[in-house]
Amino acid sequence: MEGLFFNVNNGYIEGIVRGYRNSLLNGQHYSNLTQCETIDDVKLQLAPAYGDFLGALPPNPSTSALAGKMTDKLVAEFRYLLAQATGSTARFLQFLTYGYMIDNIALLITGTLHERDTRELLQRCHPLGWFETLPVLCVATNIEELYNSVLVETPLAGYFKSSLNHQDLDELNIEIVRNTLYKNYLEDFYRFVTTDPDFKGTPTQEVMAEILEFEADRRAINITLNSFGTELSKQERRKLYPEFGKLYPEGSLMLSRADDIEAVALAVSVSSDYKAFFDAVGLTQGGGGLGGMGGSSDGKSLEDLFYQKEMDMSKIVFTRQFTPAVVYAWMRLKEQEIRNVTWISECIAQNQKERIGNFISVF
Amino acid sequence: MSGAVGREAVFPTRQSLGLMKSKLKGAEIGHSLLKRKSEALTKRFREITRRIDEAKQKMGRVMQIAAFSLAEVSYAVGGEIGYQVQESAKQARFRVRAKQENVSGVFLPHFESYTEDSINDFGLTGLGKGGQQVQRCRETYARAVETLVELASLQTAFVILDEVIKVVNRRVNAIEHVIIPRTENTIKYINSELDELDREEFYRLKKVSNKKQEDTAAADREIQAAREREAEKQLTSGKEKEAKEKETPDVPDVLGEQEDTDVIF
Questions:
Q1: A176 with B132: Cβ contact below 8 A
Q2: Which family does this protein fall into (chain A) (predicted)?
Q3: With an 8 Å Cβ cutoff, are B127 and A182 in contact?
Q4: Among A5, A100, A245, A250, which has the highest number of CB atoms less than 10 A from its own CB?
């Protein structure tokens, strides 16, 4: 039923995204890339997929410049999609940009707190998180002004309002602010895809709910693991967990009480997927400790497994039709691709070929 | 070499000879002391050179690992964290203490690194994702900086020691090749001058004694003549005059002695 009128408004976008998907690098490309000796070779290998975007790069560019150009392509393609979208699809696409906006705002707040020239900060902002009132943030010179007059104008105002006031901005660690915003964003996004009349009961709800739940769980687990040994209290930590997902509420509660990795492993054992991840990286044995977390020589780290899972989910999204969720999936895949290429070129640049295969290729 | 150094401008007297002799002795003691110092420093210097070599190779490895762990971070976080870390770091966690080490009178700075574990400014960076990588990267870089600090203290010691060894060696060489030969030359000169004076003196003394002998001989002859004449007269004059003539030979002897002392001094 949902497919009946979908293509009237959104067929073009979906078609375009499926086209974009075909230009993603596949295993063959990656194996070619890993054979490269110099960054120039990498550039050459990427030429079919990225074409003129890499043309402007000087010979032997830095890896960050390369990644920057690749991101430019992603941004350009996404902007095109956004311009084509209407109605709730447009809103959906805007939701995708909020994550970047949070990063940008966190950057600007950090800059304002330290009284930096905010204009130069704008250069560092992620282009996808750009919104019209972003430069206005530069006007604010102190944090109260920033909060009262500027942040309320941004699309993220709602996320601030519900959980943060301007004193918090001053006192809390910016990472906590960022993660609070992100939590609110995820919850809002989840609410949007599950309750919006256009998406309710469509494949979009089904697919996106699953992805967002995974994202929420991943964040909760990561925050817990990363907060060990920091000054983040359990109370504060709990506030950062998104209030949905497979782990919510029992798992989240257990996570919030976790003191060590074993407790986390126990908390996530309600979901077989996450349990499998923890088993795979050997965190349940207790011997691994934090040292084994970052991925020992052969094995993948927990983060790698999460990325892998995210990519698999994104790949599966393309089997569904009549949903803007493919845009989300495509963006995630594209970002992973940029990370992969950065990793490969970094390995080449630093002559550390032995770990060059440590990327995630899904096609 | 020793011919070119000349001698010091001193009067060739016995006093300055004594002075020179003590100077020579001092120079020799100083020379051996400085030589020993220079050897100690050179030994230290060689050791430091070896350790610098080790530290540099270690630095190469550590920096490579560190750079790679940064790549890992950028992979895991999927973006730039540099700015955020830069802004949230307010206090130094990794600190350096400077100490002084005394190597045979040379003060070498020695840097000692330590971490202030209570300061953890960007401990929450990458809370959402990549936090472990960030922490690991920080540890790797802390190790890299440790190596750099070690290298820095070695390099500083290297430069200072190099300078000091140069100065000490210059002093050793100066004492060995300039001061000692010059002092020896001066002593030789003073000795030869003194010998010369001695010879002159001897010659003069000989002359004087010759002259005195001549004088005495002439006086003797005169006395003889006078005695002869006197003997003739004695026959005519009385015994009182005879007594007077007995005293007269004493007078020239006394004069002669006085003349001698005058000549010597």
A1: no
A2: Belongs to the V-ATPase V0D/AC39 subunit family.
A3: no
A4: A245
Q: Name the pTM for this structure.
A: 0.77
In terms of Cα–Cα distance, which of A330, A105, A86 is closest to A211?
A330
For tokens 């430091």, name the residue: B48
| DSSP code for A260 | S
**How confident is residue A287, by pLDDT bands cut at 50, 70 and 90?**
very low
Counting residues of chain A whose pLDDT is more than 90, the rounded percentage is: 10
* Bridge partners of residue B107, in order along the sequence: B102
3-state secondary structure of B98: strand
Handedness of CA A17, A23, A25, A27 (dihedral sign): positive
Cross-strand pairs, B111: B98
Distance from C-alpha of A232 to C-alpha of B254, rounded to nearest angstrom: 118
What phi and psi values does residue B63 have, to the nearest 5 degrees?
-65, -35
pLDDT in tens, A105-127: 888 877 777 777 777 778 888 88
**DSSP one-letter string for A164-216:** --HHHHHHS-HHHHHHHHHHHHHHHHHHHHHH-TTTTTSHHHHHHHHHHHHHH
pLDDT digits (tens, 9 = 90+) for B164-190: 999 999 999 999 998 899 999 999 999
Classify strands B106-115 and B94-103 as parallel, antiparallel or unpaired: antiparallel
Using an 8 Å Cβ cutoff, are A324 and A92 in contact?
yes
How far the first Cα of chain B sits from its last, in Å, is 40
* Per-residue DSSP letter, B139: H
Q: Which two tokens stand for residue B25?
A: 């002795």
Instruction: Please check whether residue A227 touches B, CB under 8 A.
Output: yes
One-letter amino acid at B195 equals D
Q: Decide if A352 and B64 are in contact by the 8 Å CB cutoff.
A: yes
